Amino acid sequence: MATKVAPELLKDVCAEHNLTHVKTEEKNPLPSAEAIAQEKTEEELKSGIEQFDKDQL
């Protein structure tokens, strides 16, 4: 099952391309260990407040 391809397109596909290597940069860096620890303590504090028994007051 052969299909006809435009000669201009075939010429561009077969032509040599001048590509260059690029250096990728991380745009979404992972948080530091300190930031993770701080967030964990904040979450523990919030859960402690939410689960506090009002009858103990």
From TrEMBL:
<dbReference type="Pfam" id="PF01290">
    <property type="entry name" value="Thymosin"/>
</dbReference>
<protein>
    <submittedName>
        <fullName>Uncharacterized protein</fullName>
    </submittedName>
</protein>
<dbReference type="GO" id="GO:0003785">
    <property type="term" value="F:actin monomer binding"/>
</dbReference>
<dbReference type="GO" id="GO:0005829">
    <property type="term" value="C:cytosol"/>
</dbReference>
<keyword id="KW-0963">Cytoplasm</keyword>
<dbReference type="InterPro" id="IPR038386">
    <property type="entry name" value="Beta-thymosin_sf"/>
</dbReference>
<comment type="similarity">
    <text>Belongs to the thymosin beta family.</text>
</comment>
<dbReference type="GO" id="GO:0005856">
    <property type="term" value="C:cytoskeleton"/>
</dbReference>
<dbReference type="InterPro" id="IPR001152">
    <property type="entry name" value="Beta-thymosin"/>
</dbReference>
<keyword id="KW-0206">Cytoskeleton</keyword>
<dbReference type="GO" id="GO:0007015">
    <property type="term" value="P:actin filament organization"/>
</dbReference>
